[in-house]
Design goal:
This protein has 632 residues and is an alpha/beta fold. It contains 18 helices and 30 strands. The strands form nine sheets. The protein has a seven-stranded mixed beta sheet with strand order 5-4-17-16-18-19-20, sandwiched between helices. Helix 6 crosses helix 7. The radius of gyration is 24 Å and the shape is globular. The protein binds 5'-O-[(S)-ethoxy(hydroxy)phosphoryl]adenosine. The site of 5'-O-[(S)-ethoxy(hydroxy)phosphoryl]adenosine (WTA) has 24 residues, from helix 10, strand 19, strand 20, strand 24 and strand 25.
Length: 632
Amino acid sequence: MSDRIHSLSGYMYEYQKSVQDPESFWSRIADSFHWRKKWDKVVDWNFETPDVKWFVNGKLNITENILDRHLYTRGDQAAIIWEPNDPEEEHITLTYKELHAKVCQFANAIKAKGVGKGDRVIIYMPMVPEAAIAMLACARIGAIHSIVFAGFSANALSDRINDCKAKMVITADGNFRGNKQIPVKEVVDEALKNCDSVESTIVLKRTGQDIQMTSGLDIWWHDAIEGVSTENKAEEMDSEDMLFILYTSGSTGQPKGVVHTCGGYMIYTAYSFQNVFQYNQGDVYWCTADVGWITGHSYIVYGPLLAGATSIMFEGVPTFPDAGRFWAICDKHQVNQFYTAPTAIRALQAYGTEPIEPYKLDSLKVLGSVGEPINEEAWHWYHDHVGKGKCPIVDTWWQTETGGIMVSPLAGITPTKPAYATLPLPGIQLVILDNEGNELKGNSVEGNLCIKFPWPSMLRTTYGDHDRCKQTYFSTFPNHYFTGDGVKRDEDGYYRILGRVDDVINVSGHRMGTAEVENAINEHPKVIESAVVGYPHDIKGQGIYAFVICDMDGRTEEGLTKEIKETVNKIIGPIARPDKIQIVPGLPKTRSGKIMRRILRKIASGDGDNLGDISTLFNPEVVEAIKEGASH
Ligand code: WTA
């Protein structure tokens, strides 16, 4: 691709062009991809309804751009290097040619099971190359994939299967994580008890653990591809056909299915990947995310592979067999760009620098951060000890809904500032609005981060409920996309993300809606009411603090707390398990019955002596009792 920015003035020039004439700007970038038919119009949009279309009437298949396009130029180059959980196990390299064959073959296999264009397929898998193969096979035949992170519970999985009425589930027997072996197929079995739409499941053998295979429903991956052709002509897709659905948490109710479409997502993930990471041909790039999250979609699979990069996929965890594993992998595969989350950096920082010392880390050129604000201490540790002071850090701000990186330094080009995501990428028109919706212009301002013009990889809808998309993202501030994040633009015009301004908490870089956790807690029969807030947590960024009113019914506090945690595990999964549960006699409420979370947030953060005037509450007396029982 010829759309690489090489200098700060180049960035400024491109940014100006992208704002003055977005159509020519994006059309030039899209030109370097393979289209079966070119678009009639670059963008059609309306943020009121909302209705956004990019590359209108263009025809393409994203996998042709990932696989077929690279076959002759880099067929023998590694596309994916897979590093297993156990360092004693051999790693696997798939060249572009091999990946092409495997994707085509699996595409034929799922087609033979009756999956076609527009059908939804759930992928619930460990971090194995087959997860990427499954995604691309769906995209090849025009089926819409929806990956569910394999740490979610059966209940959360069945909710997602039912929401999108999936026809097929692709899974594995189990998952190796550190020294644990986690059941996966068993969770699918449990989930499917409540799902009618699924006609077949394909099961990869990974751990070899005992599982139940139901005849007529379950088929092994190796049997499904047995004797199947490795050639497949890609389905022709419209730019605006759905590519995937990814469920994410919001401030209310159930997770919503964020919808991304083929054309715009393709252009933007490839463009942002190349420019943010300054990837050069031959480099080895590693993003440590799980494919179950948007980062895995856009920056392990789609972005890097569209750009013809070599992308590492890692099955395991950063602390197995020891806290030097990331660095061992960097040296082993001579990683050039390394992209991880602040929570992982903080967790490793807690082990000191000793686990890093045996490694050279001299191949590293660029370090990336994503998922939550990176605190200055972690930034410096990452910069000094991992990057040895010579690698720029790209602090990339974006969201499931934005599809790709929105605000970030371009590595080595944009001067960095610790804890700042710095400047928007070309094409991204940010505005800061106050709570009344007035634009705050100029520098040294702070407010709600909004976007006033569409970008190619933005969400198009929330699956099955367009009104929810409108209400959530386009109604708070009319004619703007509202991110839900607070932001500061400093005296240099640099952006610093301040965190969520809604009832969403960010736990280890994973989004959790407080309402969602409360709903799960309330499933426990002895819980009368609950309120969940975030509080600062050294490793996770934010921890989950639940205030719960219970009918103790002869139970001990300890016993009940344990049961409530188990309930949340079962309803959502371990990622939503509260770090702290406090049984309280009541919750502070306004006279109209609204829970005063601001007060609970302060108490949870250890700032309970600074609550301001609480006399207007309906029940000010509970506040003292809650403060007394608070745990820090
Ligand atoms: C937060 C992850 C500060 C933010 C790609 C956003 C960040 C939410 C950063 C989206 C960053 C992500 N600095 N905060 N560099 N990156 N966030 O959908 O609050 O899992 O709204 O997407 O994570 O989380 P999501």
